[in-house]
């Protein structure tokens, strides 16, 4: 089978907005959601800034107090994002609903999982003894449990495949969901990622690995493609898209936001943290997805770049774009929204895919904020500081993760 796949719902919990419209407006307005950490003590930490979630009320997403009390934040954020996306899609697998529950799946992953739960219960066993470890420890901490909770709440009994590929997690989840629907294994899948790892242990680990920005100015810390960049800024949150088989969506009168047309998946096989410097394996993933989407030079292309603001990523990613696109790389509209939201790790790809769908739907390229001094090695059109209107026909979102995981999804502007 080779079926068309479309997007019929989106949902986000991000440092610049806890619903898609607020998130999108703030991206276009150049709002920066990075600030000094308020949820944890930072006196002993080398990095004191991050992209925290603000003004989040679980009740706004019909999440019960009992669920919040028992679950890790990464699951709570995921359930909230999925609630938005499913609500927008109009799908229901309840009795008398519009989708067979056994054809309704969940592909929502996490790079780290329930880190706060793991730390809390580790402290218990070390300080108080084994008998004080919660019986809910394992089913709260494991990285697949966000997907499990989403499936339970949406009665999604079809394929459920949580992905964990570091910062490529949610792009891989979207791509694998696309393939599952395209080849007939499901009619709709809730796909994306979630992360809640703004904790001293995680920050210390990333900082000591020389990955994080040491900027003392939170509003000028995440600097994709800027020659002053010094590392990425950690962030938390979740993002989800509902992917659906085209005929199924049309038959029930769903609003179609975009069409998913391509997916690429490769590995650098180079280093556990550093990207392959020549960009050829990253480019192979991009080319796979673009070829599947039947991209041509006549298309008006937008790329939502991984763009972390690390010294190695931004140069190698630029080379990868050139390798994949040739001369077309210089006419593509490209931006990184990590200047606004920071790096949401396993949730980053899905948050960026939502922005990519919005860009395609509305014909507006979101800016790369803080791009005041361009690195001469990053010489493509990275949309500095201000949004740009463009009659986009195709859009690509890519993610590159520790372990050399490269992922890429391509969307097309919807046409019947």
Name the CATH superfamily assignment of the largest domain: Thiolase/Chalcone synthase
**Helix content estimate:** 25-40%
- Which architecture of the largest domain per CATH? 3-Layer(aba) Sandwich
Low-confidence stretches: none
User: What's the total helix number?
Assistant: 13
Instruction: Give the SSE order as H and E letters.
Output: EHEEHHEHHHHEHEHEHEHEHHEEEE
Q: What would you report as the Rg, rounded to the nearest angstrom?
A: 20 Å
Strand order of the largest sheet: 4-5-6-1-7-13-12-8-9
How far from one another are the termini? 19 Å
How many extended strands? 13
CATH C-level class of the largest domain is Alpha Beta
Task: Report the sheet with the most strands, covering strand number, pairing sense and barrel closure.
Answer: 9 strands, mixed
Characterize the quaternary organization of these chains. Answer: single chain
Q: Look up the CATH topology of the largest domain.
A: Peroxisomal Thiolase, Chain A, domain 1
Shape verdict: globular
């Amino acid at each position: 089978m080779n079926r068309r796949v479309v997007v019929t719902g989106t949902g986000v919990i991000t440092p610049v907005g806890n619903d898609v419209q607020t998130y999108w407006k703030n991206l276009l307005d150049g709002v920066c959601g990075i600030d000094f950490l308020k949820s944890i003590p930072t006196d002993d930490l080398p990095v004191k800034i991050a992209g925290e979630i603000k003004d989040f009320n679980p009740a706004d997403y019909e999440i019960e107090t009992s669920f919040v009390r028992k679950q890790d934040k990464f699951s709570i954020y995921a359930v909230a994002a999925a609630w938005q996306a499913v609500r927008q899609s109009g799908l229901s697998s309840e009795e008398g609903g519009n989708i067979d529950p056994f054809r309704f799946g969940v592909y929502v992953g996490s790079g780290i999982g329930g880190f706060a739960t793991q730390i809390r219960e580790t402290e218990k066993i070390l300080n108080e003894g084994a008998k004080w470890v919660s019986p809910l420890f394992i089913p709260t901490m494991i990285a697949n449990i966000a997907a499990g909770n989403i499936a339970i709440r949406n009665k999604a009994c079809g394929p459920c495949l949580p992905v964990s590929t570091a910062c490529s997690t949610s792009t891989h989840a979207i791509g694998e969901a696309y393939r599952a629907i395209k080849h007939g294994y499901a009619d709709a899948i809730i796909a994306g990622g979630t992360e809640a790892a703004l904790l001293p242990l995680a920050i210390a680990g990333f900082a000591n690995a020389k990955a994080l920005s040491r900027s003392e100015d939170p509003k000028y810390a995440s600097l994709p493609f800027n020659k002053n960049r010094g590392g990425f800024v950690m962030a938390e949150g979740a993002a989800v898209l509902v992917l659906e088989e085209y005929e199924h969506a049309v038959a029930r009168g769903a609003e179609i936001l975009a069409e998913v047309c391509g997916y690429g998946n490769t590995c650098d096989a180079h280093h556990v943290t550093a990207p392959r410097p020549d960009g050829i394996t990253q480019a192979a993933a991009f080319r796979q997805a673009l070829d599947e989407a039947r991209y041509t030079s006549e298309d008006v292309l937008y790329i939502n770049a991984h763009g972390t603001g690390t010294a190695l990523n931004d140069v190698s990613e630029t080379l990868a774009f050139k390798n994949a696109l040739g001369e077309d790389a210089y006419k593509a509209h490209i931006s990184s929204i990590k200047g606004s939201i920071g790096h949401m790790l396993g949730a980053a790809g899905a948050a960026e895919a939502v922005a990519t769908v919005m860009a395609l739907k509305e014909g507006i390229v979101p800016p790369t904020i803080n791009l005041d001094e361009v690195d001469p090695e990053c010489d493509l059109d990275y949309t500095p500081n201000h949004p740009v209107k463009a009659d986009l026909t195709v859009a690509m979102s890519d993610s590159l993760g520790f372990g050399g995981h490269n992922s890429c999804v391509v969307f097309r502007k919807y046409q019947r």
